[in-house]
Amino acid sequence: MPSTGFLLLCCAAVLNDYETVPGDLSMRHALTDISYDAKPAWRGYWLLILFGIATLILTIGVLLIMWAVLDRRGKHYTVNEHKAEAHQGVFTRTTRSLELKNLHKVELTQTIKQKMLGIGTLVLYAKEGDGAELIFQDIAKVTDLKNQLEHVIANSGG
Asked: Which CATH architecture has domain 75-156?
């Protein structure tokens, strides 16, 4: 329970009438000598800070997902009985093609991550004169496609 002197001091502050409050003169003097300078504590903003961090993480996550979707949407690979094509780009489209009769070598690379995901990167090389190559990056069933293309090379005498 608060002391009587403290209650009287509070009442005096509210009434702004120090003369009518009985008590010690040192209390009145102490009231005028108070000096305090502070900002709100950070821990008072914990919920706002937590919300800000979560929003930042979600925003970055959404941007990364959008980047992945646009990157995937911008790449398309086709192989038919005559040629292999790699289409690339969302806003500016680039198409590179290689006639299968000019196919010289097929190279398959798989990182540990790609092996775990069942994907790989296939590089198609043209005969020495052309020097052209196509890269099919992160494709599924990469071993099957490699075997089929090597069969084409063997049958064409390349």
From this structure: Roll (2.30)
